[in-house]
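@channel sequence for tomorrow's demo:
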Amino acid sequence: MSNDILKQIDKAVKEHDIILFMKGTPEFPQCGFSQRVAAILDSFGVRYVAVNVLLDPAVRQGIKDYSDWPTIPQLYIGGEFVGGCDIVSEMYESGELKTLLEPYLPADEA
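C-alpha cells (generated this afternoon):
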C-alpha cells in the first residue's frame, strides 16, 4: 500500500470533524451498510464529508489498512475511528452516538 494514500487518508480524517468512507454517496449509496450509516448521520442533521471508496481502488484498500478494519463503511468522528455499520447502529440505538456527535450537532439539536 502506498504511503501517499495513507497520508492522504490521515490528512482527510484529521481535517474533517466527521468523515464517512462509504460505497457510493449519501445521495446514491452503493450498498445497504453504507446507506444505513449515512441515514443515521443524516437523522442527526450533522454536516459530514463522505468519501466514495468505489472511485479509487487505492483509497478503498487504503482505508482498510489505515484503520486495520476489514469492511466499509467506516466512520471517523473528531479524528477517531468509530466503526462500521454494526458498531454505528448499536451506538445509535444506545444513544452513545448522539453523545459522541453532540459537539457537531446543529445549534437547535444539541
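heads up for whoever presents: The chain has a mean pLDDT of 95.
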